[in-house]
Amino acid sequence: MRKNLILWMLVLAMGLSACGGAGAETTGPTTLTPEAETTEPVPTETIPVETVPEAVQLPLEEETVEFLFMSGAGAWSTQLSLNRDGAFTGVFHDSEMGDRAEEYPNGSVYICNFSGVFTDIRQVSEYAYAMTLADLQTEHQEGEEWIEDEIRYIASGPYGLEGGTEFVLYLPDAPLDQMSEVFLFWWPHRYEQAENPRDTLDCFGILNVEMEHGFSVQRG
User: Fold this and answer.
1) Phi, psi values for residue 161, rounded to 5°
2) Residue 104 DSSP class
């Protein structure tokens, strides 16, 4: 009796399994990929990259070169320290030792500490570069006075640079007959031309075109 019951239960289970298998539907996850739908890459706009030209540098023999503007007469001069990138610092001074008073028995000095930068540097010939004075700052306002070490100091302008916008840098070995007569007037070795004539410039030089002032590198 017990064996028959077990056998009947097995038969019933098999029948139910077969029935379920015949009518069962697949319910697992499916991925729908409609044939009419296609995936295309999203077009991207090509943005041209602007090429910034490399800034022209002055062909100085060192990173910083010292220039001097002076006439050789009097106690005044303007010193200019110029970098290859066009930046510069400098000082103008003019001593008036006879201009004294009880408050400043050691005399008076006109002085100007300044800084600035030349931009738009461009080669205009084999031996010359043009440049534009873009910025010029002074430490003190012109006319300001103060006393230090019994000397009266009077703030002045950057003589040699003020009033100018366009400048020319001359290179050593520039032919003298191709250079501005105005610059050669300030060239310190012009006095030697009678005894030791030269055909070319022996140093770097700077010409203030508008004001006709010339800076030179002092040699020897």
Assistant:
1) -110, -35
2) B
